Amino acid sequence: MYPPPPGSSHGGDAGGYGQQQQSGMPNMAGFQNMANLAENPMLQSVAKENFLQMQAQLTNKYMPGASSFWNSLRYYFHVDNRYVIRKLGLLIFPWRHRQWARIRFNDESMNNDPSAPRTIDFAPPIGDVNAPDLYLPTMASITYILFIGLLKGTTKSFNPDVLQNTFSTCTLVLMVEIGAMKGSLYSLPGGADVKPALLDMVAFAGYKYVLVALNLFIGISLGRTVYNVVMFYLCLCMAFFVYRTMEQAVPAPAYEDTGHKRRLYFLVACAALQFLTIFFLGFTRDLGETTFPGFPSMPAFGADDEYADDEADV
């Protein structure tokens, strides 16, 4: 018998299978090379930069002004733990503060931070305790809303609408206050040129939520009597703080004695407005009475009326 010719019968099939298997190995190696390239840190950084540039171009094209607004917003959240602690001390004890002028970037006293956004000529909050920020007002307003929900829960009158209504009240009070302050600026000489930044005024007005939330915590812990006493003190603190900060934000007129008087009236009105808003936001009947050792406890304000209403319903 003759041997089978090369490439025929079973030998040919085995050779074909081996060729297919060998031809598939380069494809697997190619996928592995692509995976290695995707994990390359240098290529990842290049791709990230290209994506950010493309995103910035599309944003400037379809939403002009969005980038500048975002940079301005970043300025008000450029804070650290040291600034938060110092700002809380300034709000609670404003009488001890002496230097209220804000630091500018060209001042030698400013510690230049290369990572700080430079969209505004004033130093960011991380470098100046007098600079306004939106971090504290935002966190404080959320805390205030949660405390109101907690108080409603202790009296078994909580429902989800409480949080929504409290948020709407906070927003409405802030809008009315800022609108009144902005409108009052036009009564000053050259009022059209006196334009403190809108976000600055939002921050100045929003600091009251820090004090209101703090006082609610005190009221929950110590009762209504201490709560009312501390509220009056915090109103004085907030009024003094707003007066001094707005005094720096609204420059004194260079002429006209009546202009100085109008500016003084404006500052006093801004300070007095803090009493109204804090008393309005802080008013609640859900706090219990303060009890001291040796003294009988008193029922919470309004408890007798609620008890009488329940009896009437029965």
Can you offer a commentary on this structure?
Keywords: Endoplasmic reticulum, Golgi apparatus, Membrane, Protein transport, Transmembrane, Transmembrane helix, Transport. Pfam families: YIF1. Belongs to the YIF1 family. It is found in: Endoplasmic reticulum membrane; Golgi apparatus membrane. The chain has about 325 residues and is an all-alpha fold. The protein has a domain at about 135-280. Helices cover about 65% and strands about 0% of the residues. It contains eleven helices and no strands. The chain has helices at about 10-40, 40-60, 65-75, 80-90, 135-155, 160-185, 200-205, 210-220, 225-250, 255-280, 305-314. The chain is globular and about 75 Å long. The model is unreliable at about 10-25, about 105-120 and about 290-314 (pLDDT under 50).
Strand tally: 0
Number of helices: 11
Oligomer: single chain
Biggest sheet features: none
Distance between the ends: 116 Å
Uncertain regions: pLDDT < 50 for 5+ in a row?
A: 9-25, 107-120, 292-314
Fold topology:
Layout: H1 9-38, H2 41-62, H3 66-76, H4 81-92, H5 135-154, H6 160-185, H7 198-206, H8 208-222, H9 224-249, H10 257-282, H11 303-313
Key descriptive features of the protein:
11 helices, disordered C terminus, 66% helix, 314 residues, mainly alpha, single chain
